[in-house]
Amino acid sequence: MGGGATKFQSPSKARLDADKDVDTKAGTQGGQGKDIMISYSHEDMDMMRKVKESLETSGVSVWVDEIGLGAGVDFLSKIGEAIVDAKLFLSLLSSKSVKSKYCKDELALAYVSNKIIFPCAILGRDELSVEMDFGMKLTLAPMKWIMFTEDRSYNASIDELLTEIKSKLAEINADNEPLYPATAGHTIPPKRRTIKRMQSRQFSAEFTDEKSDDFWERYFKGKDKVEWTIFKDKFNDKYGPQLNKVYSSTDKDWLMGVLYKLINQDENEYIEIEDYESFCGADGEKKPFWERVHEEAVINYTMREVFSVESSVRLDAIQNLGKFNSPSVVTALLDLITDEDENVRTIAAISLAKTGSASNKVVKKLMTLLKDKDRLVRESACLALGHLQVKQAVPKLVQLWRNDTISHVREAAGVALNKIGGEEAERAMHITKVLSEEIRLLSVRSGLPS
Predict the structure, then answer these.
(1) pTM beyond cutoff 0.85
(2) What residues does 89 pair with on adjacent strands?
(3) What gap in Å lies between CA 93 and CA 147, rounded to an integer?
(4) CB atoms < 10 A from the CB of 139, how many?
(5) What span, in angstroms and rounded, lies between the C-alpha atoms of 165 and 55?
(6) What would the DSSP string read from start to end of 6-31?
(7) What confidence tens digit (pLDDT) does each residue in 155-181 have?
(8) What is the distance, to the nearest Å, from the Cα of residue 141 to the centroid of all Cα atoms in its chain?
(9) pLDDT digits (tens, 9 = 90+) for 257-268
(10) Between β-strands 146-147 and 225-227, what pairing exists: parallel, antiparallel or unpaired?
(11) Which residues, including other chains, have CB under 8 Å from residue 338's CB and lie 6 or more apart?
(12) How far is CA 61 from CA 31, 39, 310, in A?
């Protein structure tokens, strides 16, 4: 939508306020309580307004940005919040929107925040697909599109859309009802909702394995492990013909890189059957191999799109992480911790703190960032560990507080130590302050500059 990329700021001075309740800032323009948020290119304003009016006339509440490029930063930051808070997300697809950085960011955030997505196309699917980048194709490929093209009447299209929207809203509202009536003084939390996006039958038929035709059983039956190069060759044998129809060789190389990192737990030249089964067994349920590949590839792409420095929704996504935090989000952020771009590593550290997850994996990754060559990365890691109150980080934080050459990093380490608290942190800081004061007094008595 409108606006530009937000300038990157030092995390200690910007977004990581450990004591701030980030879930209370929804204003009158936020998406809270709205049924659906519409993402669109402002060049498609007329079509957007027509769809919006039809939805509202039928009783569907809509959040949409009609201010755009003339809006201030405060309003533009509401777009990310509106996506997170709305129940559903509609992406109005045109030749302009599929190339818009803002529309791609908004779609990515909708996916990451676990929204049911309604792709509504003004042009034909093939015509739009050639204009999309790899990640957008991957995200939208398995979804059912509702066509608002010239070869179909508007009434037929809007009726189909309304039927789907009202069906999904009914499911969401039913899932949000408590299992038992609330009693006086007690609030019953809603049941956890499992998202079932509208699927394209064509995509499912072309790519998804039948459960009776397991990938490992088909190619490596009876083997405990197989070389990655052989695994990769068999993957290309099975899925290559379908992938070649849609994606470039560069796109496929990126996909294989994602798969290698996710499935090769020991980071060696072999893929073990235990790693394969663990990869397919997400959420305690074994899923077809291609379905898991697609899920992880899309979450990898969308997380990078949402949390990149250039993202138009990054800061608001970080502030609202608590609303859509999930194991897959944490896993994707852990992957971003090792990114080559120091800005991405910085953002990943801040975002991990906002998830509230202090698992061993999270703590280990954040601890490694304390040694990062980039000062912003070290600073954000200090603040993240402090926010999560990681007591085992105290010795490392004390070292940085005493010895780092960058004052902002020392300050961040001090903030983290104060936040963590406890006898060990207080004793270490007290001893350091006493020694510093003694050294200063000795310098004064010796006539040396203090």
Answers:
(1) no
(2) 37, 117
(3) 10
(4) 25
(5) 9
(6) PPP--TTTTT--TT--GGG---TTS-
(7) 999 999 999 999 999 998 887 655 444
(8) 19
(9) 888 888 886 778
(10) unpaired
(11) 345, 365
(12) 10, 14, 30
